[in-house]
Amino acid sequence: MAKIVSTKPLSVAQREKLSRLGDVACPPEGRRFSQEELFSALHDAVGLITFGTRVDEALLEQAPSLKVASTASVGYDHFDLAAMRRRHVLGAHTPHVLDDTVADLGMALMLAVARRIVELDGYVRRGEWKKGDEEVLYGVDVHHRTLGIVGMGRIGRALAKRAKFGFSMNILYHARSRHDDVEQAFGARYAALPELLQDADFVVLLTPLTPDTENLMNEDRFRLMKRSAIFINLSRGKTVDEDALVHALREGWIRGAGLDVYRQEPVPPNHPLLSLPNVVCVPHIGSATRATRTAMLDLAIDNLVAVLEGRPKDAYIVPELKDLVEEG
Ligand code: DGY
Which stretches make up the D-isomer specific 2-hydroxyacid dehydrogenase NAD-binding domain (predicted)? Predict the structure, then answer.
């Protein structure tokens, strides 16, 4: 009988959905498979459900029968696409279902940094709030300021909608190509990256991690930003040179930052970023609401089922591997 492996626990309903295809192996509630357990479970598996585990040559070697790796995430930088192509393993991901949830976090981080929510929460709790304190509590406005979105996909559009219609912001965007729909719907203006960095009050990074976007935000680019600007990263940690970001924040090249992603996750507790008062850090929670994470896992399961039932066109196959479906 065919076998499906999930690196994380599945609910009874999720296991039932998969069991029509074969045996299902997943760790018990509250646990993840160790690499050894995973590799051993994979030796006769045709399908893998993953949550960020690297699907590379080392894993694929242990899974000679694998037909599909389905990740419960929209990002798939943990897929070694060349290795998957060589072995004709399809990769699927979960676009759409998380767009609004990630865009909500983008607004939350912009507001938290601009209005110094975390810093001032500590101030109140430590009993430091005194009568007459006025200017020490000031932040900066979000409404009517200029938002620069780098990477204009579905999440970028969801963020632009909130910023434009909720906060009357002006929208600049930079992407590989221009998007008429975005310009019409949100009055957004396309800008080259240097121009966007120079003009925006808030810069939000939403690009996928690719060889072209690795270290996209480096010292030169942080130096282009306004001293009053706020930087938000919702993409992947490796899109940012973190040493340069620390300098930018310490030396006042920019006002502050809100970070959901880091080069190393979990970020080490002694990381210099964590000692800076002008940074709000959250632990890669862009899509982390119960409803959205459930929808993502359900979609990852549907993708896997579609591929294994011979309907790969009904699955969200990652664009770089779509031609494998067309080849049949
Ligand atoms: C994704 O889906 O890629 C997100 O980063 C996970 O929260």
Answer: 107-286
